């Protein structure tokens, strides 16, 4: 790798640290699909797996090495010969292979995990790097739990592994312990105190136990690190890793930081969805950059601001991450500007609408529903046109009795030819009884050829939409009806069609 002073190398570990998430294990085929998408995204390094861990993971590294040629393909090992032999074997088809070896650097790890001493661990670190170097040129060394390690010892270890041949030195905050300032200082300390530091790239690998992974990674690069280890959607062991999409968009949004990289941010959203689907790991709706709500505005003041000027409440252009446009979601917290926006979008002529009246009805409906969708608006606007039927058919009242102990019966009051008429009828269900009651009043029956009831979204509180095709004497019309009551929606659809027969 060339040492361009402002170049940030993006090291993706979705297929290794990301895959450590319980339930997120991938097949070789899935790993290759994600690997190719990461290559297309423009990442510099793909950590493909931990070959010694299982035959399946070994095979995945082999196949990924064959299929993905542009990025460096990296395999993880512990600091021992067996792991390194296995990684070297798995990487033998890689165009740009890297072995990522390392050992614990904190006193906690040295004492409790290894029952060892700083000196002995330092020696194992150096031996592992030298051994890995006998297979491939590109060696990354990780000083596990560097976040909690003593800086003086860490500097000694880093200097020794670079002297042994490490090309990249990874300073992981394995337990997500550090504050951004502390982590930044640690990287600066290494920059200033390791004599041969310029012979290697410093890498940051931060975990999110305190929600600081991305902040710490940024602090790391501001203090001299040039590789960021991250995962799509921030997945990874425990609370996860630094999210790749966050790093890329921070660097883009704060271009004054003056860092460059070669990731094409326009693929971020698509890749987030792909990883989420394949790992069956939903993305939290409020996840920065790629969450369902990251570009959705649902409160009136924000919606008004965004509609007047997108940047009032958006620091990222959604197109930059591959999302067509931000969303204005109608809820009971929305105002008239947002409602107006959707009415216009649906083709209503605003000048002909009493917006205050529609808004009042909108609030009544929105208080009972979590979200108002297009079909709900059509339903609301149906009231506006109810009295304008050509034939003047309009429901004034409807009562339906149904259940398994009674014969379904409907009583309807229908305005027909300028006066209200009442009729009662039975049928083989509540909708059939209602249609028959309508037909009693108009003295004629029509043929219903198609009849569809759509559950529009979800939940028993939803507005349902009915469409039906009604024929008579060679003529055929389609009627639409909307209501939270499916019998009423069916009656509305029937009358909508009948009103079209002149
Ligand atoms: C910080 C990280 O995230 S590293 C990546 C974590 N990922 C994984 O652990 C997934 C892959 N791991 C595995 O499949 C298995 O743990 C294996 C194959 C690596 C090892 O399995 P086992 O041999 O059964 O050992 P086990 O996992 O129970 O214990 C780990 C052993 O590795 C040692 N070890 C841990 N880290 C290192 C290291 N960096 N270098 C050398 N030895 C290490 C431990 O001290 C312990 O050794 P011991 O048996 O002498 O006490
Ligand atoms: C293997 C290393 C880089 C790691 O995953 C960690 O320390 O969190």
Automatic annotation (TrEMBL):
GO terms for cellular component: cytoplasm. One of its GO terms (molecular function) is 2-isopropylmalate synthase activity. Keywords: Amino-acid biosynthesis, Branched-chain amino acid biosynthesis, Cytoplasm, Leucine biosynthesis, Manganese, Metal-binding, Transferase. Mn(2+) binds at residues 17, 205, 207, 241. It catalyses: 3-methyl-2-oxobutanoate + acetyl-CoA + H2O = (2S)-2-isopropylmalate + CoA + H(+). Pathway: Amino-acid biosynthesis; L-leucine biosynthesis; L-leucine from 3-methyl-2-oxobutanoate: step 1/4. The keyword Cytoplasm applies. It is an enzyme of class 2 (transferase). Its EC number is 2.3.3.13. Residues 8-269 form the Pyruvate carboxyltransferase domain. Residues 394-502 are annotated as: Regulatory domain. GO terms for biological process: L-leucine biosynthetic process. The keyword Phosphoprotein does not apply. Its cofactor is Mn(2+). Gene3D superfamilies: 1.10.238.260, 3.30.160.270, Aldolase class I. Catalyzes the condensation of the acetyl group of acetyl-CoA with 3-methyl-2-oxobutanoate (2-ketoisovalerate) to form 3-carboxy-3-hydroxy-4-methylpentanoate (2-isopropylmalate). Belongs to the alpha-IPM synthase/homocitrate synthase family. LeuA type 1 subfamily. Homodimer. This is 2-isopropylmalate synthase. It comes from Daejeonella rubra.
């Amino acid at each position: 790798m060339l040492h361009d002073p402002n170049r940030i190398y993006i090291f993706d570990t979705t297929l290794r640290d990301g895959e450590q998430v319980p339930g997120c294990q991938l097949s070789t085929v899935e790993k290759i699909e994600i690997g190719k998408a990461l290559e297309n995204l423009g990442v510099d390094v793909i950590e493909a797996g931990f070959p010694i861990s299982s035959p399946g993971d070994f095979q995945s590294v082999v196949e990924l090495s064959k299929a993905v040629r542009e990025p460096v393909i990296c395999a993880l090992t512990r600091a021992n010969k067996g792991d390194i032999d296995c990684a070297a074997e798995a990487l033998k088809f890689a165009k740009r292979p890297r072995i990522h070896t390392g050992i614990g650097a904190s006193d906690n790890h040295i004492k409790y995990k290894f029952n060892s001493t700083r000196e002995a661990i330092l020696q194992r670190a150096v031996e592992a790097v030298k051994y890995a170097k006998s297979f491939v040129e590109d060696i990354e060394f990780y000083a596990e739990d560097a976040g909690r390690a003593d800086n003086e010892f860490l500097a000694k270890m880093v200097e020794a592994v670079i002297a042994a041949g490490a090309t990249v030195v990874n300073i992981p905050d394995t337990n997500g312990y550090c504050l951004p300032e502390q982590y930044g200082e640690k990287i600066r300390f290494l920059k200033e105190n390791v004599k041969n530091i310029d012979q290697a790239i410093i890498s940051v690998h931060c975990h999110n136990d305190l929600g600081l992974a991305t902040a710490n990674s940024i602090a790391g690069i501001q203090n001299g690190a040039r590789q960021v280890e991250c995962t799509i959607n921030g997945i990874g062991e425990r609370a996860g890793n630094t999210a790749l999409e966050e790093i890329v968009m921070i660097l883009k949004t704060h271009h004054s930081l003056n860092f460059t990289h070669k990731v094409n941010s326009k693929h971020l959203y698509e890749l987030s969805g792909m990883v989420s689907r394949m790992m069956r790991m939903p993305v939290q709706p409020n996840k920065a950059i790629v969450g369902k709500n990251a570009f959705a505005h649902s409160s009136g003041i924000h919606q008004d601001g965004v509609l007047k000027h997108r940047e009032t409440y958006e620091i990222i252009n959604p197109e930059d991450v591959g999302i067509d446009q931000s969303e204005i979601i109608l809820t009971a917290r929305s105002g008239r500007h947002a409602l107006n926006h959707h009415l216009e979008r649906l083709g209503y002529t605003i000048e002909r609408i009493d917006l205050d009246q529609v808004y009042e009805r909108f609030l009544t409906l929105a208080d009972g529903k979590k979200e108002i969708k297009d079909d709900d608006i059509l339903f609301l606007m149906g009231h506006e046109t109810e009295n304008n039927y050509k034939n003047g058919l309009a429901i004034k009242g409807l009562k339906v009795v149904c259940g398994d102990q009674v014969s379904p019966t409907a009583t309807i009051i229908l305005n027909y030819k300028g006066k209200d008429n009442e009729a009662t009828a039975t049928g083989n269900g509540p909708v059939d009884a209602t249609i028959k009651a309508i037909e009693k009043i108009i003295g004629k029956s029509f043929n219903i050829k198609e009849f569809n009831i759509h559950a529009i979204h979800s939940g028993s509180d939803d507005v349902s939409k009915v469409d039906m095709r009604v024929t008579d004497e060679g003529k055929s019309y389609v009627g639409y009806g909307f209501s939270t009551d499916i019998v009423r929606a069916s009656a509305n659809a029937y009358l909508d069609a009948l009103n079209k027969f002149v």
